Structures are given as structure tokens and as C-alpha cells.
Amino acid sequence: MTDHDTEDHLEDLPLDPLPLDAWHRAKGARMVPFAGYEMPIQYEGIVAEHTWTRENVGLFDVSHMGQLLLSGPGLDAAVEAVLPIDLSTLKLGQQRYSLLLDEDGGVLDDLMVSRWPDALYLVVNGATKWDDIGTLREALPDDITLNHLDDRALLALQGPKAADALARHADGKYPLSALTFMRFGLFTIAGHEVTIARAGYTGEDGFEISLPAAAAAEIADLLCGEPEVKPIGLGARDSLRLEAGLPLYGHDMSPETSPIEAGLIFGINKRRRSEGGFPGADRIIREIAEGTRRKWVGLRLDGRLPAREGAEVFAGDDHIGTVTSGGFSPTLGAPIAMAYVAAAHAAPGTAIEVEVRGKRLSATVTPTPFVPHRYFRGS
User: Fold this and answer.
1) Which residue spans within 46-88 are E strands per DSSP?
2) Which CATH number do you get for residue 359?
3) Whether residue 179 is found in the same domain as residue 238
4) 276 assigned to some structural domain
5) How many degrees, rounded to 5, is the angle at CA 23 between CA 22 and CA 26?
6) Which bin fits 316, alpha (ψ -120 to 50), beta or left (φ > 0)?
């Protein structure tokens, strides 16, 4: 979502309140600066909120994210010149992960793209949204309209009981159960028109709800009135995404990383890998063919001491990489991390060491996700 430089810069500026700012405070949230906003990091405690989401349903306020709507003549061709996405295979009601790259193939942001009638809807990271808007406006033709939907909030309802809780309130032309992972539809909740996508950032089944900001408190109250649902903060969102092996922009990827070494080749659709025609394509195509000097991997550490971002990784006396995300996994009861390491040491099962507080801790390269995803792909 943000790199340290961006966070430091944003936190020097006045913080904007989320549409639900007063709602969070009334619920007892501890608020912290993040991505230019004051955001709830926890209510009852990170581990308790993490476990509740794994077993029930968590409501996350992600209204800091940027919601953008693109429209105009020749839209698909214009967007394909900017993103490595194949829009010919993105049908109405579908969404897809993609990447905004610089001319050298570095990652400027990761984002979601959805096919709306006569438009494309993008969700971009909160701390990068203003840069993203500037990059897109500069790169897209003048007859492509970019609307920043700053009058809308975004809520994520995540957990194994999310579908049951949301179905009690979401009315549409078809039942909520018709949505499978990475599909979306138009619904109403309490008379308000909303867009619901079956997606999220926790590894659990769940939904992201785009709704009028003015209705956010009403709908949040309605959802948290269900016995399965509690509000959850940024702390548990981070521990959940770590267990799910999901990268965080500015930490696990940045302009200094390519999507190939970051393991994000799925964000570059098959046709585009051969045809190119997007920023950084030469480097991307070369790395697909030749490989990369380093790779992003999962790590399982021995003991209970977690490795945090910036911890150095070694193989014997050789420095082979750096941790990009890490922490203690409540679900596994063990420390886990993700890191870039030299390609020769990236195979699952490889024994390495991570330096934490001046000590070398034994660790093993481990496939991700650490905790299996439970996305709903249909019965």
C-alpha cells in the first residue's frame, strides 16, 4: 500500500478523516496515521481480531483506497497501452489483478480492474492513488475520462461466514451466492445502491462493497448488527494478508522490483507476455525468458521470535537477501516472513538464516500461502 518514504511524506501533511472516522472512534478503535488518513489499527486486539476473522466475519474499512472510473472511445486499447492486462478476456461483471509499471518495468502500484458497462473501474492503493491518477492522466489519451469516485466509501467483509451475513441485507437481480471469486454485481443495501465484488485481502472468502460515503455508517451498523460480524483494524488485516502470502505495495514490491522477481507474472496476461506494448515490456519479456537474479519467497522461522521488514537473510557467510514482510502467525503459532533472496537459494525447503536482533535464526524457504486460501470459486 505504501513505501516508507511515501508514508513519511504523507504523515507530515494534515491527515484526512475516513467517512467512518467518528464511527470507528465510537467503537473504541485506536487510530493511527496511514496513507494520509487516520485509520483504525485495532479495537479489541490484533490477535483476537485476526482469529475472529478466520472463524467468523470481520468488517474492514478500506475507504482510503482510490476508486477510479475510466470511460471514453477506444478505452480498451488506451488502457492496454498503460497496463499489462488483456481486456479482450475481461467480461462484464469480472475483475482482475493488474499492475501499473514504469518504463523500466518497476512496479508503481498494483490494482484491481473491473469491467463495468461502457467503463472500467479501478481500485488503487491509498498512498499511491494521487500519483496513480497523475500517471494515468498523463499516459491516457485526452478523450479518455478519468473520474475519481471520492464520494464513495469501500468496506471489506471477510471471513467464512461473510456470505451468510451479507446475504441477509444485499438485494439484487440475482442472489449473492451467484457471485464467485473475482466477480461483482450491483445490489442494494438498506435502499442504497452498492457494488459488491467477491474478493478481498485476507485469503478468506469475502466481499468488497463500494457504497455512497454518506451511507457508510448506516451500512456498517447494519452489518455489525449481525452476530458473526465485528469491526477489524489494520493490524489484523496485515497479519491475515501475511498468512495468505499476499504482497503489500511499498514493502514487497516497489519501483525497485519487477513483477517477475516478485512472483506476480499472473498480473501480466498471457497475450501481453509475448506481444508487449506496455511500459517496461522489454525487461518483463526478457526476465520471463531468462529468469531473475533474485526471487520473492516465503520463510518459516524456527522458534518464536519474528523477523520484521529489513532483516537480512544469509546462507552461511553469504548475504543473500532481505525480509520485506514478517511477523508472528496467530493461526500457525510460529513466525513467518517474506523476502527477496538470490535465485540459487529460492527453492522450497532451502535452509537459510535470518538475522534478528543480532542473532542468526534458522529458517526454511516455504511455499506461500502459509495458510490456504478459502476463496469461493463455486460449488
Assistant:
1) 57-61, 66-71
2) 2.40.30.110
3) yes
4) no
5) 85
6) left
Contact between 159 and 34 under an 8 Å Cβ cutoff? The reply is no
- Cβ-Cβ contacts under 8 Å for 20 (sequence gap 6 or more): 61, 63, 153, 216, 217, 220
Q: Does residue 118 lie within any of the structural domains?
A: no
> Is there a cis peptide before residue 279, judged by omega within 30 degrees of 0?
no
Q: What is the pTM of this model?
A: 0.94
What is the residue range of 45's domain? 4-62+151-243
Contact criterion met (CB below 8 Å) for 112 and 95: yes
CATH number at residue 214: 3.30.1360.120
Whether residue 12 is contained in a domain is answered as yes
Dihedral angle over CA of 263, 264, 266, 271, nearest 10: -110
**pLDDT range class, residue 11, cuts 50, 70, 90:** very low
Name beta bridge partners: 196: 185, 209
Same domain, 237 and 155: yes
Spatial separation of the C-alpha atoms in residues 321 and 313, rounded to whole Å: 5
Our count of domains for the chain comes to 2
pLDDT in tens, 229-282: 999 999 999 999 999 999 999 999 999 999 999 999 999 999 999 999 999 999
- The answer on 42 and 190 residing in a single domain is yes
- Does residue 20 belong to any structural domain of this protein? yes
| Sheet strands (E) in 48-94 | 57-61, 66-71
Distance CA 32, CA 347 (A): 38
The count of residues in the chain is: 379
**Of the candidates 220, 286, 237, the residue with the CA atom closest to the CA atom of residue 259:** 286
pLDDT at 36 over 80: yes
Summarised one tens digit per residue, pLDDT across range 61-120 is 999 999 999 999 999 999 999 999 999 999 999 999 999 999 999 999 999 999 999 999
pLDDT tens-digit series, residues 296-310: 999 999 999 999 999
**Claim to verify: residue 233 and residue 303 sit in the same structural domain:** no
**Mean of pLDDT values over 8-30:** 83
What are φ and ψ of residue 173, in 5° steps?
-70, -20
C-alpha cell at position 285: 519479456
